[in-house]
Specification:
Blueprint: H1 19-26, H2 31-41, H3 48-72, H4 75-80, H5 88-99, H6 103-109, H7 116-120, H8 122-129, H9 133-151, H10 157-165, H11 169-184, H12 198-212, H13 228-233, H14 239-242, H15 244-261, H16 267-285, H17 290-294, H18 296-310, H19 315-329, H20 339-356
Helix pairs in contact: 1-2, 1-5, 2-3, 8-9, 9-11, 10-11, 11-12, 12-20, 15-19, 16-18, 19-20
Length: 359
């Protein structure tokens, strides 16, 4: 009688997560399509036996993901639950990958109200980006979930996101930008802003959050609230364009400062000085109005960037002008009462302009 082969059997309760399959699940691919892609990646797409086994394997993984997903809505739940024995590394990867997103999808959501009405319009974004509707919905729901939690908290936006959603720093900053821009309803969708990518808005939001929000160690409040005292104080900078003597003095100082750094004649500065100064100061002086805050990025483009581009200014020339403009304005006694606010405004605006300038 032929003896049966020995079989080694191992039984465990650890939950194995195949992150290649998880990526396919996040894309909302049906199991059959996911199987084809899974096999193609491994060079086994022509093997029928492998296809059947792989289909069962992927369906099993999909079932696990579906049961784990509710815990990802509140990542701290995943780290504290005992139902699924997951390694610390697996938990971290699950959370991070679940909250990662397609930049093209999020770019179209920037500045929009994260409401049910916006969610109903996701089919348009899905069609435009080629990302499946269910995947767009998951990404939108993640943004809305973070937004809802952050609305109720005071203090650092990024730290709160990391604490409640266990996200790495870079991803936490992305969500901080999404929350901030949505909360203040910044205009991000106009045609003139389409040249700006998601990273441009994230970097600009960093400067705005760190400099313009009202939260301090003494008076902690949500980082999505702008410092209204700071914005109202900025009205005092109008003197730079309303008083002709101050204007002329400042213009001469800027030209002299630029001349120290370049052997070129400063005619390129003189020809645009009035227009750029009016743009820089007008944006600042009107930021206490809600609509002007919303139009901040479009104002930067229309009032400062477009004139500079039309004049053929390279980024280095814009940098020199902005640096000289601010350093010379600091010494003007007429700005003494609002110097701290002017400094916060100008440094942030300079960073934003240089981040989004294209030439």
């Amino acid at each position: 009688m032929e003896s049966l082969p020995d079989i080694d059997v191992f039984v465990g309760n650890s939950t194995y997560i195949d992150f290649d399959v998880f990526k396919l699940w996040l894309q909302q691919l049906e199991a059959e399509v996911a199987t084809s892609r899974f096999l193609k990646a491994k060079g086994l797409e022509k093997t029928t036996a492998c296809r059947n086994q792989s289909m069962f394997y992927i369906l099993d993984q999909y079932r696990n993901f579906g049961m784990i997903e509710p815990m990802l809505f509140n990542p701290n739940t995943l780290s504290n639950q005992l139902t699924y024995q997951l390694t610390s590394d697996s938990q971290t990867q699950l959370i991070t990958k679940y909250y990662e997103f397609d930049e093209t999808v999020i770019r179209d959501l920037l500045g929009k109200k994260l409401s049910k009405g916006t969610r109903r319009d996701l089919d348009e974004i899905s069609s435009k980006t080629g990302v499946k509707l269910k995947s767009c919905q998951r990404q939108f729901d993640n943004c809305r979930r973070v937004f809802k939690v952050m609305e109720e908290l005071s203090g650092s936006l990024v730290e709160n996101i990391q604490t409640h959603f266990l996200l790495p720093n870079n991803l936490a900053w992305n969500y901080a930008a999404i929350v901030f821009l949505s909360s203040q309803r910044f205009e991000c969708s106009k045609r003139k802003l389409m040249m700006l990518n998601l990273n441009d808005f994230v970097q600009c939001s960093k400067f705005l959050i760190e400099s313009w929000t009202a939260s301090t160690e003494e008076t902690p409040c949500p980082d999505i609230e702008l410092d209204r005292d700071f914005l109202h104080e900025l009205r005092g900078v109008k003197v730079l364009i309303s008083d002709q003597r101050v204007f002329d003095r400042h213009k001469q100082a800027v030209s002299a400062e630029i001349q120290k750094s370049t052997s070129e004649l400063c005619s390129w500065c003189d020809s645009l000085f009035r227009q750029l100064s009016r743009g820089i100061v007008s944006i600042a002086a009107n930021l206490y109005k809600t609509k002007e805050i919303r139009d901040y990025f479009i104002d930067l483009v229309e009032r400062i960037i477009e004139p500079c581009k039309s004049a053929g200014w390279e980024k280095a020339r814009l940098t020199l002008f902005l640096t000289s403009y601010f350093s010379t304005s600091e010494s003007l006694p007429q700005l003494e009462t609002c110097s701290a606010s002017w400094m916060k405004y100008f440094h942030t605006t300079k960073h934003c302009l240089l981040q989004i300038y294209r030439l």
